[in-house]
Design brief:
CATH topology of chain A: Immunoglobulin-like
Strand content of chain B: over 45%
CATH architecture of chain A: Sandwich
Order of helices and strands of chain A: HEEEEEEHEEEEE
Number of strands of chain A: 11
Radius of gyration of chain B: 29 Å
Number of domains of chain A: 1
Order of helices and strands of chain B: HEEEHEEEEEEEEEEE
Largest sheet of chain A: 6 strands, antiparallel
Structural class of chain B: mainly beta
Largest sheet of chain B: 8 strands, antiparallel, barrel
Radius of gyration of chain A: 26 Å
Largest interface: A-B, 38 and 42 residues
Structural class of chain A: mainly beta
Strand content of chain A: 35-45%
Helix content of chain B: 10-25%
Strand order of the largest sheet of chain B: 1-2-3-5-6-9-10-14
CATH class of chain A: Mainly Beta
Oligomer: heterodimer
Number of helices of chain B: 2
C-alpha cells in the first residue's frame, strides 16, 4: 500500500510540473503585402417613379491608378426636388482589368460593415438604409438605400464605409474607416 | 543365465519404480503475478479531434502528445485471470493555432489577428477491468479491456482583432466527463524477483460532450463553436517499470 501511495504521489508531482511548465500557445496572422485595393466608391441612383431615370456617380482615388483618365472621377449627382430615389452603393478596385467588384465582398461581410451617410446642412436630402445584415438582431448595412430629396439646393454628401469587426452596433462610431469620400449633390 | 534374467528383472522394476512417481506429478501451470507499474509514453490522436481546419466546426485542433500513468493488476490465485486498472493523464498538443489566426483574419477582413490558446487538450482517465496473463518465465504478457471515466478538457482561446482594442473574441476552456474505454497489452520482463520493465500499447476511446461558453461575440462572423462532441481516440505506446508480488 505504501508503495502504491508513493508511486501515485510521484506521478501527480510529475504531471503537475509538466503542466505548469507549459505556456499558453500564441499565433499571429501577420499582414499580407499586396492585398486588394478599394479605389472607387460609386452611387447608382434610380428614380423610384421613373425606372429609366438612372444616374451613376463615382469617386475614385486616382493616386492608386497609373495614368488615370479624368472620366473616372465623376462624383456629382443631379437630382430632382421632392423625389425618391433607390440607391445602390458600389465599391470597386480599378487597379485591375477588368474592374474588380468589391461590393460583393462587402455584402458577404455585411455583419461587420456599415455605410454611413452625412449630408451637409445646405443639402435637403434624407438617406434611409433599406438592407439589413444577418446579425441577431439584424442591423442595417447601407449597400441599398432610399434617398428622399427636399427643396432645391446643393451640398456635399459624405459616404463612409465603416469596418466594425465584432463591434458593429448599428451606429457609425465603432471600428475603422475603409473608405471616406464626398459626392456633390445638386437638387433642382 | 537364470541369475542374469533375475538381475535384469530387479533393475527393470527399480527403474519403473523411480519413473512412475514422476509421471504422477502434474505440470505446474504458470499463473499471473500481480503487479503495479508506472508508465509513460506517446499518445496519438485521430479523427476530427486531430484536425486543425478552421472552417470545420468538428476540428478539435489536437495533435499527438504524451501520457503518464499507473497501471496494475491483481491476478487470482492459480489463475491467469485478474482484475486491474489504468489511471493516467494524457496531454495533447495544439494543432495549427496559426491556421486559426489566419481564419479569423480572413473572416473579419483584417490585416492581422493574434490568437492565444488558453489551456491544454488533455484527459484524466480512471479505467478498470479484466486482465489475462500469459507467462513465459521472466517474460509475461498481459492483455486487458478496461472501462471507466474519462475527464477531458478542451482549451479555450482569445482572438485579438487588429482593428479593435478590448473587443477580443473569447472561447472559454471547457471540461466534460465521458465513458472511457481501453484495450491493450503490456509485455513485462522481470529483472529481479520483484522488479522489471515493461512496454505496452493501448487503444483509448472517449466521446465527451462539451458545452462551450463564448463571450463578447457581438456580430455573427468568424468561427464559433458552442458544442463539441467528437471522439477522443488514439493509440498509446508506453514504457514503464513495475513491481510484482
Amino acid at each position: 500500500m505504501k508503495k502504491i501511495l508513493t508511486t501515485a504521489s510521484l506521478l501527480v508531482v510529475l504531471a503537475t510540473i509538466m503542466n505548469s511548465c507549459k505556456k499558453d500557445e500564441t499565433a499571429v496572422a501577420p499582414p499580407v503585402p499586396g492585398n486588394e485595393f478599394l479605389t472607387t466608391v460609386g452611387l447608382k441612383v434610380t428614380n423610384a417613379n421613373n425606372a429609366s431615370d438612372v444616374q451613376y456617380a463615382y469617386w475614385t482615388d486616382t493616386t492608386l491608378i497609373s495614368n488615370p483618365p479624368d472620366s473616372i472621377n465623376t462624383p456629382v449627382l443631379n437630382l430632382q426636388a421632392n423625389q425618391k430615389y433607390n440607391v445602390e452603393v458600389l465599391f470597386q478596385d480599378r487597379t485591375t482589368n477588368p474592374i474588380g467588384d468589391v461590393t460583393a465582398e462587402i455584402k458577404e461581410r455585411q455583419n461587420y460593415h456599415l455605410i454611413c451617410f452625412t449630408a451637409s446642412p445646405s443639402l435637403n436630402l434624407t438617406v434611409t438604409r433599406t438592407d439589413k445584415d444577418t446579425n441577431v438582431p439584424a442591423l442595417e448595412v447601407g449597400l441599398t438605400d432610399l434617398f428622399t430629396t427636399g427643396a432645391a439646393g446643393t451640398g456635399q454628401l459624405n459616404v463612409q464605409l465603416r469596418h466594425q469587426p465584432n463591434v458593429k452596433d448599428g451606429t457609425c462610431a465603432p471600428g475603422s474607416t475603409d473608405a471616406d469620400v464626398n459626392f456633390t449633390i445638386r437638387i433642382k | 543365465m537364470k541369475k542374469i534374467i533375475y538381475a535384469c528383472s530387479v533393475l527393470s522394476l527399480l527403474a519403473i519404480s523411480t519413473v512412475l512417481p514422476a509421471q504422477d506429478k502434474k505440470p505446474v501451470k504458470p499463473t499471473g503475478k500481480s503487479f503495479i507499474a508506472i508508465t509513460g509514453g506517446v499518445s496519438t490522436v485521430s479523427g476530427n479531434y486531430s484536425k486543425g481546419d478552421y472552417y470545420n466546426s468538428q476540428s478539435g485542433f489536437a495533435k499527438d502528445g504524451f501520457n503518464l500513468g499507473i497501471t496494475g493488476a491483481y491476478f487470482f490465485k492459480n489463475s491467469n485471470w485478474g482484475i486491474g486498472g489504468h489511471f493516467f493523464y494524457t496531454h495533447y498538443g495544439f494543432n495549427n493555432s496559426k491556421g486559426m489566426a489566419e481564419g479569423y483574419k480572413e473572416d473579419f477582413d483584417l490585416d492581422s489577428t493574434t490568437v492565444y490558446i488558453k489551456g491544454q487538450n488533455q484527459t484524466l482517465n480512471f479505467l478498470v477491468g479484466p486482465y489475462y496473463n500469459f507467462s513465459f518465465g521472466k517474460l509475461q504478457l498481459d492483455i486487458h479491456a478496461l472501462v471507466g471515466l474519462t475527464h477531458a478538457t478542451l482549451p479555450g482561446n482569445e482572438v485579438y482583432l487588429e482593428d479593435g482594442i478590448g473587443n477580443q473574441l473569447i472561447q472559454r476552456k471547457a471540461t466534460a466527463g465521458a465513458l472511457g474505454l481501453e484495450g491493450g497489452f503490456n509485455l513485462r520482463y522481470s529483472l529481479t524477483n520483484h522488479f522489471g520493465v515493461l512496454i505496452g500499447a493501448n487503444y483509448n476511446y472517449a466521446k465527451p460532450d462539451f458545452d462551450i461558453v463564448n463571450e463578447n461575440r457581438k456580430v455573427v462572423a468568424g468561427r464559433k463553436v458552442d458544442k463539441y462532441n467528437e471522439p477522443i481516440a488514439g493509440i498509446q505506446g508506453n514504457i514503464g517499470v513495475f513491481y510484482q508480488l
